[in-house]
Amino acid sequence: MGGHTRYGWVHSTSTWDSFNTCSLNGPALGQPYGNVNRAELAIGFGYSTNWSLTTAPTSGAVYIKDFGGQTCLTNNGNGKPLSVVTCTPGNPAQQWRVP
User: Which of 81, 63, 80 lies closest to 72 in space, CA to CA?
Assistant: First the structure.
């Protein structure tokens, strides 16, 4: 998912999309309720782990949007943490390839 990561990601779908590390039982990618502009591993309670995928303009790419659908998971560059900020149409840092 989007370059090199330390973990393998497992994508699952139901009402929402979710991303877990290594297996469906691994920690999920989430947003802390106290700081929804961050994305981190949700270990414990206090996280939203609900995401939705929408088609991006680049062939085969998607936007990973938060549960409200207004903000997108954003790659801020090598060695920098991910963020969840306002979706910008065509922004390549917000376009992901999810198998």
Answer: 63
CATH number at residue 74: 2.80.10.50
pTM of the predicted structure, to 2 decimals: 0.87
Residue 99 lies in a domain: no
Residue 21 belongs to some domain of the structure: yes
Query: What residues does 83 pair with on adjacent strands?
Result: 38, 74
Per the structure, how many domains does the chain have?
1
Instruction: Give the residue numbers spanning the domain of 82.
Output: 9-94
The answer, yes or no, to whether residue 87 has pLDDT greater than 60, is: yes
What is the tens place of the pLDDT at every residue in 6-38? 558 899 998 999 999 988 899 999 999 988 899
SS3 for the chain, per residue?
CCCCCCCCEEEEECCCEEEEECCCCCCEEEEECCCCCECEEECCCCEECCEEEEECCCCCCEEEEECCCCEEEECCCCCCCCEEEECCCCCHHHCECCC
